[in-house]
Amino acid sequence: MLRVMPLLWALLALEVAPSLAIFYLPGVAPASYAYREPVKLLVNKLTSTHTQIPYDYYSLPYCHPHIHQEIENLGEHLSGDRIENSQYKLEMKVPQACEIVCKKQLTKQQARLFSHAIDQEYRVHWIVDNLPASTVVVNEAAPEEPYFTRGFPVGFKARDYETGKEMHFLYNHIRIIISFNEDHNPDAAKRKFQGSRIVGFRVEPFSIAHSWDDSLPFSKHDTLLSTCNEMKEAMNDPANYQNVDRATEVVFTYDIAWEESDTPWTNRWDVYLRGSPDDKIHWFSITNSTMIVVFLTVMVAMILVRTLNSDIANYNDPAAIEDAKEESGWKLVHADVFRPPALSPMLFSVVVGSGVQLLMMTIATLFFALLGFLSPANRGSLLTALLLLYVFMSSFAGYHSSRVYKFFRGEDWMRNTAATALLFPGILALIFGVLDICLMFEGSSGAIPLSTFCTLVVLWFGVSTPLVFVGSYFGYKKEAYTPPVRVNLIPRQIPPQPWFMNPMVTILFGGILPFGAVSVELFFVMSALWLHQIYYIFGFLFLVMLILVATCAETTILMCYFQLCNEDYRWWWRSVLSSGSCSVYVFLYSVWYFFTELEIEGVVPALLYFGYMAMISIGFFLMTGAIGFLSCFWFVAKIYGSIKVD
Predict the structure, then answer these.
(1) How do residues 171-196 score in pLDDT, each as one tens digit?
(2) 3-state secondary structure 184-244
């Protein structure tokens, strides 16, 4: 227990100051701007927690120039990002008041698009200097501690004062507030940087039904609006909101304000990472659950080790009567414990190999995240890293699958290797293909383009599959593992088992403790996935991963020990299923989360949610199942190698 405390506090120190735990790499280096230098405002996508279906910004009839997309990485394409140029013109430190973007004559159908987006609470995402637009949210419980959320709403609903009917109003005027930082060292030679660096980007949306002098032709550059101009600040007037319940004329406008800030450039993401005041509960919950699980894990390990030492000493005692040693216990099944599983040894080896691949991918991803390589400032980096690391870890899948299959004396190695390369990715590809078709019919930006699809196919068949065969070659080339005890030709009869050793009981019970180890953190991971929040506390996530590995290993070893003590040597599949059953609880938890925490509406959004959670649960089953098998195999080899067998 005491050994775990320094690790816990070290990880906590990393998380208390997220800006210290995350550093910036080439590609997200600081950009300095001279006075009046153009600053790009890019538009990204529209998102909603009610539908989980992202759309391109210009899928709504906003003002748009000749559209061209920015270069995006693989993760951005898969997450539905579509970063494009806009008509908003910004110049460094040049304020602007009520600038006109364009005038749009909305048809009834176009107005309905805005109304539908407002009903589903879609939010608009913009980007300036790699910073997402944010809006300030005032916490009613602590008004002095506001926090920031990414994006701003398309509009809002309110009741008309006269009719009392609920109406839809569009945010057509945006006040853009950009914070910048400068080095004011009087000695220009000693300044760390020249010019200004952008350290904040927030917006304040307004709904204004603009008016102007109709006797003059409308001009984007010359028309003077009476609702806001250089002499009159834009205001939200309930009597003059921009209604979009019918065909109407909308003028889109914006203000730009520049404010100097003391925030260093390296800390500019802190406002996004702090999140809401509920984060204090997050820290307390994680620390509390971690200490409880660690304590239980250490206690179970101590009891198990003490019992095993007693068993081994008894079996190896030369003064004991030989017949007495053979009356009961796990030594009785020493000649059958390494007998290959009767049910599909090839499938078993494929499951283990795929699980080891996912385990290595997860450890590598968390390691790079802890080093700061997966900073949220680098959009799509986490998803890209997950995919590429999974592909590059394919050799581990081939190697371990072949080693297990060779130990089972399997001969069809080509079929085993092909199954390892195709089974799990094939299942994911099938589910993902169905979901992608649904997104395509919805016109979502989340539907992957043809180029991304071709990239995924090349990664699968051009990189991952060959690596599986390479790993498999080295696995088969190596000598098969020699068990410490011989295996009889005739299997031993298994006595009737008590009810509590029923496979379904032990399998379902085996997943409870591992799920308990991750349940608290799972809530915050789910919130980041489905409530469009930024997840950055990788230190605690790494600690939770270590605890998950320990609890999976411990519970599986404990279940295996009880099983062998009852003279049941069929531990192979049960070692995978006992720890892998944690994934069943994860999926059940996702069902509970769907009905209690989310407000997802529609068939396609629900299909997306459960489809992606099924993919996650299958991967979780393979990973935890591999942990259970490897730890159980080590345990069985260790205890049977420690006793004297004639």
Answers:
(1) 999 999 999 998 877 777 777 788 89
(2) CCCCHHHCCCCCEEEEEEEEEEECCCCCECCCCCCCCCCCCECCCCCCCCCCCCHHHCCEC
